[in-house]
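Recall the central idea of this unit: under ordinary conditions, the amino acid sequence of a chain determines the structure it adopts. In this exercise we apply that idea directly, starting from the sequence alone.
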Amino acid sequence: MRFSAKERDRRYALIRAAMAKENLDVLLVYGNNGRQGPRSGNLAYVSSYVPFSGQQALVFSGEEEPVLFVGVENQRIEAIRNSWVKDARCAPMTPVPGQVCEYLRGLGGRMKRIGLSSFSVLPVAWHQQFQKELPGKEWVEAGELIIQNRLIQSEEEIAVSRRSAEAGDRIWKRIRECLREGMTELDIRKEMDATIIPLAGVENFNMLGLASMANGGEAPWGYVIPQTERVVKRGDAVLLEISPRVWGYWNQIVRILSLGAPAGWLTEAYDVVRVARDECLKHLKPGGRMAGMITAMQKVIEGRGYKMWPYGLAHITGLDLTDYMITPESTGTLQAGMVVTVHPMFQLGTDRQIFWGETYVVTPGGYDPLNRASDELAVV
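Accordingly, the structure predicted from this sequence is:
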């Protein structure tokens, strides 16, 4: 367990208060090892167990200890070894939803109203089985019950987010040191993984975009894609989306590296993203409007004659890479403890964009950058 009992008790008190407010008898939390939107991290938040394979379900009820159901024995052992949950169960001949149904039947008829986190990620077959085997229950969407608490990180969580950001910075530093002509995209990825894994970043979502600076070359420029055997050449620009996950918590930093003197269009566009970032940061403070961050970037980008990409310019980052996507339609305000990735991006032409970013924590007095890497356009 990497978080303290104090942190466990803090989270459980928040969850139980929210359950009481919604009149929930039971909270059923679904988990998997995928990236299926901002609800996948809910199980890790409740249990301090980060799923590494398969699918799981955790039953959280009243003042009783939570019970975790898994499908494979090594998941059960890992949960007991490295989470808050000491009652982890595995029945190798009974799939997880069947284990859940059997347990809930044992709780008796008093368990009528069940919150489910979340319908957006729960397999349809699981829900159908729950309805069939547990008739008369009221199933309620309860994803927001957890996610709203997740958006504001505690001191312990922020410390882990800082560690994840340090991993991102080190990856960027390593690529700046080693990148050279003749490397392939897969060679770059190998260096990224070799840097992050010793820092406990065994999970990551590292992507890159690579193309010639001359009219886009043979590939669309600025779009991050899975790595290939394409070779890096002089005159290329490499865009790295570096997203390490350390102890369950994500960081994201996006940087650009030019092999040779950068083209004029790249220098100009890079200047725009940094100015847009600076204007966005004026809103990054407690009480600041989330949408204000986006409109501030939009004013800069469109004022320089570019077309803004309206989605993904900022997001709250935590147990999911995107805990919450901030858009021009967001109505919320920022609070101290939120970890926010700022992502100015805009269109450079058909199939061409510039993409850039780094992560901050909102503090009582404003913000603190988690990524400490230079924001200069790097040149090799």
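The chain has two domains: 5-150, 155-379.
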